[in-house]
């Protein structure tokens, strides 16, 4: 079998070496031609079309250790697939040995201590499902099919971020297999420097096998959902969004977006495909308070659709799933914002009006609150000046439309990027965002991350990520 080395050289991996690997691994080991190969090699973003030479679906920590040792001993390019949702396709690489973590999806909840331990292959929905049995939740993202590990290693934010910070601010410990094949635990008290780097520095330091999340009382019912208006109302709705975001309690997190209306049953048929402005909200506090807090949204102007209601928290967490199917083509541009100025909403509307695909959107996510109260040096995630995220989210079906959609996203970004804090979200960077954008994401933390990398992975075994190996 032809495989890629770490230095990007194609070499032959002999059959006896492969037999040795198989004898050390309990999970399935396969390559192209196997019925499971396509599912493993493909990722959420259909623009990514890479072919690893070899896939190992690890069944447990012992398999991960065996894989890391094997890759190191044979100088193999290694890639790690969590939920496969990274838009840049960092989970996969041509000619690599892929560690597919999808068989490691166990979650253990300790309701007394309010801690959940999630295995590294979990999707967000796996964790929410188990923690909600106890009326508890971890701080995770907005789409239930996203992998917890990639999200957490890059920072992570969602509806609960205003109350409790980045996902990574709420990690108690991570367990990982390091480049030398050791199983190591990292927390504020065990290997604290490594823990600092894992909390936002991407997958640079090892294969994470489990994450302990701090949990908070949330749900099982919350008030959440979406209200939509015709795009003609965007100027008023976005001004309202800005005002409401400035005064809303931290229990409430808001998202504003403009896009062509999807063919959703809660939107009138005649509006499908027409431009709309929408506001999403999640109030995770007391239900009576929540209903009062969302009332002004529901009564604002003349909505064309309103599904902002009491519902299970897990339902809200999967409300957007169908809008983000695996295999469609995606291209994003994104910035952190310290505020949303009226001039920015003007540009937001201008570029939303130029969207070229029925699936694309311009989005503001509100994040401000707990994350702004920690110092920048708290962990590698940094970006403590971020109060909103802007995402220019291109999404379309066919390769023929690549150029038009990418050009739209880039033009909008070029016109808007001056409103940025100067920081961007590591996990939203696309394949054509180079090392300078990794610097924009990691900012002040970059130097310390370089030093941690030297200690824990001096030969850069873990390189198919937003790599911070010093040159
Ligand atoms: C539809 C969609 C919605 C999203 N929503 C949010 C959101 O609400 N909030 C948010 O913060 N982000 C969000 N994201 C971004 C998301 O955080 C990143 O895409 C993240 O990389 C996804 O993690 P994953 O495990 O699914 O990805 P993968 O593509 O599997 O992996 C991403 C990176 O993490 C590394 N990695 C994965 N598992 C391991 C492991 N066990 N050990 C070491 N490294 C590992 C991979 O090698 C790769 O470098 C969203 C993305 C999508 C596509």
Question: How would you summarize the topology of this molecule?
Answer:
Layout: E1 2-4, E2 10-12, H1 15-24, E3 29-30, H2 37-41, E4 54-57, H3 61-73, E5 78-81, E6 97-100, E7 107-110, E8 115-119, H4 124-131, E9 136-137, H5 148-154, H6 161-164, E10 171-177, E11 183-187, H7 192-198, E12 207-214, E13 216-217, E14 221-230, H8 234-247, E15 252-260, E16 275-283, H9 287-298, E17 305-306, E18 309-312, H10 313-317, E19 329-337, H11 342-352, E20 361-366, E21 388-396, H12 402-416, H13 435-442, H14 446-456
Parallel strand pairs: 4-6, 5-6
Antiparallel strand pairs: 1-2, 3-4, 7-8, 8-12, 9-13, 10-11, 10-12, 14-16, 14-17, 14-18, 15-16, 15-20, 19-21, 20-21
Helix pairs in contact: 8-11, 11-12
This protein binds flavin-adenine dinucleotide.
